[in-house]
Amino acid sequence: DWVDQAIYDPQEMKQGMYRIHTGYDYPGPHQGNFCSNGIVSPLRQEGGKLKEVKAAHQFVKFDVKNVNMKKNRATVTIYNDYDFTSLNAFNLVYEVVKEGRVVATRTVKLPAVKPHDTWTADIKLPKAALKQAKADNVETMLNLRLVRRHATAYSEAGHEEALAQFTLVERGDLEEIAPKGEPILATSSLHEVMVGNDKVQATFDAATGRLTALAFEGRNIIADGQGFLYDNHRWIENDRYGNISNGLDAEGSIEVTEKDGNTIIKTRRTGSLCDTEINYIIYPQGIVDVEATFVPKNGNLRRAGLVCMVDSSLHNVDYYAYGPWENYCDRKSCADVGIYHQKVSEQYHEELARPQESGTRSDLRYYNVLDSSGAGINIKAESLFSASALPYSQEQMDYTVGAAQRHSGDLKPDGKTHLCFDLVQQGVAGINSWGAWPLEQYRITYKDYTFKFIISPVR
């Protein structure tokens, strides 16, 4: 199957075009882009898939017990599952992480722990202040890394061969929001419903109930009237089953009420795949509380979440979640929870032969979408969620839409930032390469879902 090994087409290279090619680009027989979807990309990049395989097969396991909150100490156990390697060639590097930021790092030289033996030590957790962190609901974690002390034939000194992350203090609940200021008035016309003051302004389509504009202090963040909407669209090589069409009815409903000094916008949209109700609480001080309820019509959803399109000036993301590479509910053992800063253009970072879903970050605590000055919006939810911000829409990344997008190199940014916020997203699977469903625990359970999150400005 030699044609599947082709990376660049010689004729296109002469024209200055460089894009990954597969068997689909040549006469058969071939296996399509089968060999381009392995754990190593055609350009030999180290991406999320390779990281996940490495994490699944790491030969050293960690455990943390007997956490002493008063003395800020913990008992760490290392299990050496190598058959022939002692651990005296490694260092244990551990980090204390508070709300996503590393506050202390220490290195311990490991003794000669024999294969299939264990090593246990009581370690001090500098700057953890666990008792106070628990009182203040400050999420605190411990990162454990096994790194090579010296270079080997295949790695440099400091090469990380195993990792684990443990929670020492759980995250707290979101603070209750109280209205500050005079109640916001709503005005209606034949086509629009508008709610706002000098801090926040929201506009809704009267026929569909869809949010079409959301401005903080006069700056609208929604592009082309494409505010929050239920979207099931996702395409990866394993998604070869079921209907991905949203099936939304052409019209919806909208109702404006007032309670406790807050303006509440209730919207509803039915559909053949999933009914959605999205309610917005507009606080006078310039905060928007969103509660979305999803009522599936079958058990084959790929996502229970919302999409929206924001202005392309918001081209940076700042998030507190698993990272730094993309990860999903069934592919996050390779990542650490922390705070990461990236560009939207970097989110589609793996050189996939053919376009498909990319860029999701899982177990988000918050997600900021910002401009070059650091201004933009902050999204934080009652529960952990996943999100992506890409210069392409989900439809653009579905290469079945049209032959013009059969290669990742054919993707062209449309000048907008496309956001997906998912309470749950189906796993990417990988049991085989012929469309097998993900394992049961990584599928979306057939039930109603409620997704609550808060949008506030970042200045």
Report on this structure:
With 459 residues, the chain is mainly beta. The protein is built from three helices and 24 strands. The protein has helices at residues 10-14, 48-56, 130-135, and strands at 60-68, 73-80, 90-98, 101-109, 118-124, 140-148, 160-169, 186-188, 192-196, 200-205, 211-216, 219-220, 229-230, 253-259, 262-269, 274-283, 287-296, 303-311, 316-323, 336-343, 361-370, 376-390, 416-425, 449-458. Strands 13, 14, 15, 16, 17, 18, 19, 20, 21, 22, 23 and 24 form a twelve-stranded antiparallel β-sheet that branches.
Name the assembly state.
single chain
Give average pLDDT, whole number.
90
- Name the beta content range: 35-45%
Helix share bin: under 10%
SSE layout and pairing:
Layout: H1 10-14, H2 48-56, E1 60-68, E2 73-80, E3 90-98, E4 101-109, E5 118-124, H3 130-135, E6 140-148, E7 160-169, E8 186-188, E9 192-196, E10 200-205, E11 211-216, E12 219-220, E13 229-230, E14 253-259, E15 262-269, E16 274-283, E17 287-296, E18 303-311, E19 316-323, E20 336-343, E21 361-370, E22 376-390, E23 416-425, E24 449-458
Antiparallel strand pairs: 1-2, 2-5, 3-4, 3-6, 6-7, 8-9, 9-10, 10-11, 11-12, 13-18, 14-15, 15-16, 16-17, 17-24, 18-23, 19-20, 19-21, 21-22, 22-23, 22-24
